[in-house]
Amino acid sequence: MPSIRAAILLLLLLVSFASAAGCFGSGQAAVVAEQTEMVYSEVTGPMCTSLVGWYESLEERFNSVSFPSGKYDFKVTNWPNRKSYLKYEDCMRWNRDRVAECLRGSKYTYGDFEITADFNRGKCVGDL
After folding, report:
1. Are 103 and 119 in contact (CB under 8 A)?
2. Which residues form the signal peptide (predicted)?
3. How many domains, in total, are found in the chain?
4. Does one domain contain both 125 and 108?
5. Are residues 27 and 85 both part of a single domain?
6. Is there a single domain that holds both residue 94 and residue 126?
């Protein structure tokens, strides 16, 4: 019987180490959730889902959209008692055949809220 108890204890130790290392996905999910919360600060529930859906629809519509870091902010307004800023460091790039156009301070509407692109520097390629 001691060998069975030792085997169970060893198995429990291995499972706890694997969980702590994120082998079962829970650790990775927590990191992703934390990063998502940092990026979408003050954006919660269906609003966050809608905004993510908006980005995904951009990707479908324009082959590829990249949001590296710093060239502009998305200022999200028209949400009840909220103002959120989503910061990225590069201009959107898509569909190389389209004419390049810089969108400075352009406003986009999605559902019940409005998104204003405030460009800090550089050029933005394409349009919406």
Report:
1. yes
2. 1-20
3. 2
4. yes
5. no
6. yes
To the question of pTM greater than 0.85 for the whole model, the response is no
Give residue-wise pLDDT tens across range 79-96.
333 333 333 322 333 222
The residue range of the domain holding 27 is 1-39
Q: Which two tokens stand for residue 14?
A: 């291995």
Q: Taking 50 as the threshold, does the pLDDT of residue 3 lie above it?
A: yes
d(CA 126, CA 128): 7
Phi/psi region, residue 126 (left: phi>0; alpha: psi -120 to 50; beta: rest), is left
Angular region, 50: left φ>0, alpha ψ -120 to 50, beta rest = alpha
- Name residue 72's beta-bridge partners: 88, 119
Query: Are both 53 and 107 inside the same structural domain?
Result: yes
Alpha helices by DSSP H, the chain: 2-20, 26-39, 45-61
